[in-house]
Amino acid sequence: MILTFKRIISSRRTITYFIAAGLFSWLYVLVRITFFTRSPYDLDSDLERRLAGSRTAHKSSRGINKNPTRHTPILLKPLPPIAPHLRWPPNIDEMLCRPKIYVYPDPPAIQEVYKRVPPVHTPYIAEHILLEQLRDPSSGAYKSYVTSNPEEADFFYIPFLGARYLNHCWFILGEKGDCDVDGQYVLPMMRYIQQELPYWNRTWGQDHLMVHPMDRTSLYYQQKDIMQNATFLTTSGDLRPLAPSVVGSRRYKNIVIPSATTILNLVKIDPLQYLTSSGHPKHKRRDIFVLFSGRYKDVQPDDVYSAGIRSLLLNGFDRQADYVIASGWGPEKYAKLLSRARYGLVPMGHTLGTTRLWECIAFGVVPVIIADGIVEPFEDDIDWASFSIKIRRDDAHRLDKILRAIPEEQYQKMQKRVWEYGRRVLLTRDSWHLIVRDLCRRRHLEGKRTIDRDNHVDLTNSFMIIQS
Ligand SMILES: *[C@@H]1O[C@H](CO)[C@@H](O)[C@H](O)[C@H]1NC(C)=O
Ligand SMILES: *[C@@H]1O[C@H](CO)[C@@H](O)[C@H](O)[C@H]1NC(C)=O
User: Fold this and answer.
1) Which residue intervals of the chain bear CATH 3.40.50.2000?
2) Is the pLDDT of residue 428 over 50?
3) pTM over 0.85
4) Is the pLDDT of residue 291 over 70?
5) What is the distance between the alpha carbons of residues 219 and 231, in angstroms, rounded to a whole number?
6) Sequence-separated (6 or more) residues with CB below 8 Å from residue 197
7) Which residue among 193, 195, 199, 206 is best mutated to probe the pocket of ligand 1, counting the most ligand atoms within 8 A of its Cβ?
8) CA-to-CA distance for 182 and 200, rounded, in angstroms?
9) How confident is the model at residue 463 (pLDDT cuts 50, 70, 90)?
10) 195 within ligand 1 shell (Cβ under 6 A)
């Protein structure tokens, strides 16, 4: 029996059978793997067929879909409006809360300083404008928020005008450096607030506000540490980790505000001299495609200044027929040009924010912002994307292509939106109202008894359910 088995196994024909069977299974496995294994991208066959049929964009698709326009969307209208509480941006005419702000008087020592240091004509006067509004009994800000009784105040406003002191010293007296601003101005101001009155120490300054309207915010002062606990209202918001100002590291402490500009706040040109009430030029069309005024001629691609972006303007853009680019013009001419421009270029300079943004907005020019990492004022409330264009630095060389690809209808929409909505963000419009909305969101408001919470909406915690 065993012998018979051995003979069968060793017979030649059996060996051939074994080899053939082996070859066959190897071939079978190969064919299976090559042709019948599903790739992780395969979908079910109906969907595969539909996708194959839709590949009309590829010229090589051998005409699978003969009628590419067959499946146009049925709804040609936007979706119906949704309930106000589900909508963003919010209605900024409503208050989130109504805090009371106490404005400190100018300390006696500071009044003496002001006798020597009159206000100067520089664009860094956001500090002056915001303070004036709080001190003007006829202003909306005064009527809505100011209290003369510090005991009932939720916030305390320090009437700090450091830019006035420094600008006077730099531009009128022609001095350089810090002009002893700490000894002459910062210390007398802060000593009064921190040592003569009890309110700073109650929260170690957390509920105190002050404006820093220049590029480097509080870094002009040796004594900056004594003011760090206050909330700074600053004119540039910057998310970069090593930003030249301290703003970057105080994202949730500072409030970004619009800045004042020479033509709007010093020369006080009224855009309505040049534009109709609906924001169109009175005598011409908007025939300037792109407008830019500012420093660019000496900028190299690898400069820190403007991250090299402004070097691109030299590089061909300034020779396009419908681009108007120059180092600057007198206020009248600049205003005329703004009233005829479609897009205004707003590339970063020393900081991410620049005052020409506000000039564009005031004249109904759609701003084209090139400043990666910028935080615009009131981003929680204002839909910036609806009236401005952002181009990344890496795409800035394609600026012309990007702008010319924008359909006319979309441009018109944005232009209307700058005029009817964007202008509300200008410094002299609703600034206090918008600043207060930001203040209302601050945690340290919790437990303040005087805040009117009539308009408070409780957030549902459904987002937490999704996460768990
Ligand atoms: C507030 O605290 C500082 C530091 O502790 C102190 O020097 C100052 O006198 C205090 N101010 C008041 C009004 O008590
Ligand atoms: C800032 O606040 C901290 C506590 O958060 C406090 O220790 C410090 O003294 C405060 N600085 C000033 C100048 O009030």
Assistant:
1) 264-426
2) yes
3) no
4) yes
5) 15
6) 104, 150
7) 195
8) 19
9) very low
10) yes
